[in-house]
Specification:
6-stranded mixed β-sheet, 3 domains, Helix Hairpins, Rossmann fold, alpha/beta
Length: about 600
């Protein structure tokens, strides 16, 4: 069967810089593919070419007859005089809309899109924010029922409920799909194919994004072995990439242990919740107590944002804030920052609090300054990090910039690079609390890794509003879940912990309702179960056997890696190379899962010993 959409021997150059050279990409019906790559590699350009919006220098674009392609770009363009419902209705198939009046089915589909993406049908397009514009464009694309779907960062500005709805839609999508996204959880759920645009070349793997990291690491490792005869500059660049990957792998394990320890500490504190309230005069710069929220209440007309809410914020807390769009998360931040006044209750900050705010619109950056001038606005060659001087070029390298970029103007940077620079600028300023409102929108994955590392090493307090589930899992000690009508619930852990506890609670309610219906007259005493005092037999067995299993897996991994390091293996026996690569990926995943399981058991054992 011929591919439904593709590029053959495609090449493109901007000025003197080649974007990609002689690449081929093919999508078959049923492919749910992602396109990944470092910032600035040309992913969005490639999507524009596939959509027929940009021409190639060489090569050809191929698309099957009688297909309907829908494309949702990062920045959609449309007639601002129309309203939302009219614009979305344009996506309805012509054969379904034979007259100017919507059929009942059409009207229902439009209203469903309005509900999913939290849009008002009568709202003018000229009144929409950038995020709302993208949601409307997504609604128009999906309602058209295409058989080819191209999506550039579709989850930006969507709340988690809408993301989950979109995931389900795409998993059941029967056509061909290609998506660019920074949302790892989203990509792992929906994809069955991966395209990797890397240094002008395109690689293809017939598996989903969940296998990408290991695949990328293996390729870099093998390439490094074959570069001994090539240009030293290329060798050094590849070495820098590989070292960065290896360092990130090691940091991830250490960061996970540190985060779990912080979550355990926070859980214990919440369980013994004391009645003592923080007085502002007692607060000290860098002290344990940061802020006390007491009986906070705020209404906007008939909408209750927060009601009778108490929270004690401590130094090194990493607080995630989740909830549907429009429920009051940003208003809550404004209450904390003093931009809004509560109707009732108090917010008491410690003395000497110095907050920083991550502005996703990047208004804190001057486009006409160089990167060097941005980080050293008063001149000089050094920035101060936690009271210690560091050369500005070395600091830029920490944020994944090349030293040559130090004298480039901010306006020459891509969106992801500007976000990276803004992070670098923020972390040079003295602070003890950083507030991040939707920090993951438009960030590339490299910058997300960097931001997670910065949060892990930051000595102050972090408050994060985000819909990125993986990011919340990697960074937060506890979540504030906005559940409507002013209710805010506290859940220790990341988003996965919150979702599991929420699911368990819903199952408990259902089981109680079933028991009540089955035996309405029977009364049972409320017997409280004794807390778990020891590990189960299976847990004890795993705790004993896992270290040896991990050692054996690591030996297997090293053996397989050594085989792949043979520079002639791929050219002499590509089938064997592929088989060993699959074995290596499987062993690495097993080792990772075993390490996660062992870490969980060690933490559980430690908690039980404390009881």
């Amino acid at each position: 069967m011929a591919p439904i959409l593709g590029l053959k021997d495609a090449s493109l150059t901007f000025g003197t810089r080649p974007i990609f050279n002689m690449i081929s990409l093919f999508l078959d019906e049923g492919d749910r593919a992602c396109l990944v790559g470092r910032n600035g590699e040309g992913k969005t350009t490639l999507l524009n070419i596939l959509a027929g919006l940009q021409e190639l220098d060489k090569g050809e674009r191929q698309i099957s007859l009688n297909t309907h392609l829908a494309y949702v770009p990062q920045v959609p363009f449309f007639d601002h005089n129309a309203n939302v419902a009219d614009f979305v209705a344009e996506g309805l198939d012509a054969h379904e809309t034979n007259d100017p009046h919507f059929s009942a089915k059409d009207d229902y589909r439009i209203q469903m899109m309005m509900d999913v993406f939290k849009m008002r049908p009568d709202q003018k397009l000229s009144e929409l924010s950038g995020g709302e514009s993208r949601r409307v464009a997504l609604a128009k694309a999906l309602i058209s029922e295409p058989n080819i779907l191209l999506l550039d960062e579709p989850t930006n500005h969507l709340d988690i409920d809408a993301i989950l709805w979109l995931e389900n839609y795409l998993i059941n999508f029967k056509g061909a799909m290609l998506v660019i996204s920074h949302d790892r959880s989203f990509l792992k759920k929906i994809t069955n194919k991966t395209f990797w645009l890397d240094r002008g070349q395109l690689r293809t793997q017939s598996r989903g994004y969940q296998f990408f990291d290991e695949w990328m690491d293996d390729i870099y490792r093998v390439e490094e072995q074959t570069l001994h005869k090539m240009d030293q500059k290329i060798k050094s660049e590849l070495l820098w990439l590989r070292e960065g990957l290896s360092a990130r792998r090691k940091r991830d394990q250490g960061r996970l242990r540190k985060l779990n320890n912080m979550r355990t500490e926070r859980r214990e504190h919440l369980h013994k919740k004391v009645g003592v309230k923080l007085e502002a005069s007692e607060g000290k710069l860098g002290g344990k107590a940061v802020c006390d929220i007491i009986k906070l209440h705020k209404n906007f007309d008939d909408l209750c944002i927060v009601q009778n809410f108490d929270l004690e914020i401590q130094r090194k807390d990493r607080i995630g804030i989740v909830g549907p769009n429009g429920i009051g998360k940003t208003s809550f931040l404004k209450l904390l920052l003093g931009e809004l006044t509560p109707d009732q209750g108090k917010i008491k900050w410690g003395v000497g609090i110095e907050p920083l705010y991550f502005d996703q619109k990047r208004n804190q950056l001057n486009e006409n300054l160089t990167l060097w001038e941005t980080l050293c606005p008063t001149g000089g060659d050094y920035v101060s990090i936690s009271g210690k001087p560091k050369h500005v070029v070395g600091y830029l390298k920490d944020f994944l910039f090349d030293e040559k970029q130090a004298h480039h103007y901010v306006k020459t940077l891509s969106g992801g690079e500007k976000n990276r620079l803004l992070l670098a600028k923020l972390f040079t300023q003295p602070s003890n609390i950083i507030i991040l409102d939707e920090p993951t929108n438009d960030l590339d994955m490299e910058t997300l890794d960097l931001l997670e590392e910065m949060i892990a090493n930051y000595e102050g307090t972090i408050i994060i509003v985000s819909h990125d589930r993986d990011f919340l899992d990697q960074t937060t000690t506890y979540l504030l879940a906005f559940e409507g009508k002013g209710k805010i619930s506290i859940f220790v852990g990341g988003y996965s912990d919150y979702l599991q506890k929420k699911t368990d609670a819903e199952k408990l309610i259902i089981s109680k309702e079933k028991a009540s219906k089955q035996k309405p007259t029977e009364k049972k005493e409320n017997v409280q179960q004794s807390p778990k005092v020891k590990l189960s037999y299976n847990d004890q067995r795993d705790l004993k056997e896992l270290p040896g299993k991990i050692d054996q897996l690591n030996i297997s991994i090293k053996t397989l890696e050594k085989k792949l390091q043979d520079p002639y293996l791929y050219s002499s026996n590509p089938t064997l190379f592929a088989e060993i690569s699959v074995q290596l990926e499987k062993a690495q995943k097993q080792a990772h899962d075993a390490e996660e399981r062992l870490l969980h058991l060690l933490i559980l054992e430690e908690e039980l010993h404390k009881k």
